[in-house]
Amino acid sequence: MIADVLPAPVIAYDTFTDAPRDALLPEEHAVVATAVEKRRREFTTVRALARTAMHALGYPPAPVLPNRRGAPGWPEGLVGSMTHCEGYRAAALACAVDMIAVGIDAEPNAPLPDGVLEAVSLPAERAWISDLTAVRGEVSWDRLLFSIKETVFKAWYPRTRYELDFEQAEVTVSPQSHTFTCRLILPEQAPPSSWLTDTQGRWLVRDGLLVTSLAVAAGWAPVPALGAEPPAAAPSAPSGPRPPRGRTGCR
Predict the structure, then answer these.
(1) Tens-digit pLDDT profile for residues 110-122
(2) Could you read off the pLDDT of 79-126 as tens digits, one per residue?
(3) Sign of torsion, CA 204 206 208 214?
(4) Per-residue DSSP letters for 200-229?
(5) Residues 54 and 78 sit within 8 Å (Cβ to Cβ)
(6) Ranges of H-type helices in 57-122
(7) CB 137 within 8 Å of CB 111
(8) Is the CB of residue 212 less than 8 Å from the CB of residue 147?
């Protein structure tokens, strides 16, 4: 499912079945040593999927450790993103020579809890959500907005190390083409944003899920240099894969 909303240079896998505990590498075990079982299953399965993608790209298996914001740390030469929600896990990776940023997210196709929409949306976004809900009630447009913003943040943050708030991203959605665009509303001292905001993302609804993606191709526009890596997260921090697409051996 996740591969259907990503361009061919991105290798994507997803699953509805959790991986066994021994799929983790020793460094990763330390991160979830005290985590609850649900957190451990999610953490383990997305990393198992990520290593399957690494293999498809010609990379050896490597640990994927979260930084203080939970963003995964990829081996040099790779960019990627991971997501999980109840019953679904996915990972997407690409060579940095092909793509400079990848973000994915999955959410249940169900309305946001009361009060959440107001916290994550702008007035213009609430207007189109209301309009689309009136004519296309089979899609939880408020949850789709949330998923899109999560996807945008996952593509933006690893490149810039600049933390976005929900009100700093204004999203518009096309229900016909299943695409979206995002305009970032940033202060002057923020990193340049045109490399991301001029890019079109994709979304779909299937099997009770909303899936969103944003993939930025390398070389089409100047991008900021990678920001400094924040400190790693403390250890207490909180059915078969789909065949890959795209080329391999990109190191």
Answers:
(1) 999 999 999 999 9
(2) 999 999 999 999 999 999 999 999 999 999 999 999 999 999 999 999
(3) negative
(4) -EEEEEETTEEEEEEEEETTSS--PPPPPP
(5) yes
(6) 116-120
(7) no
(8) yes
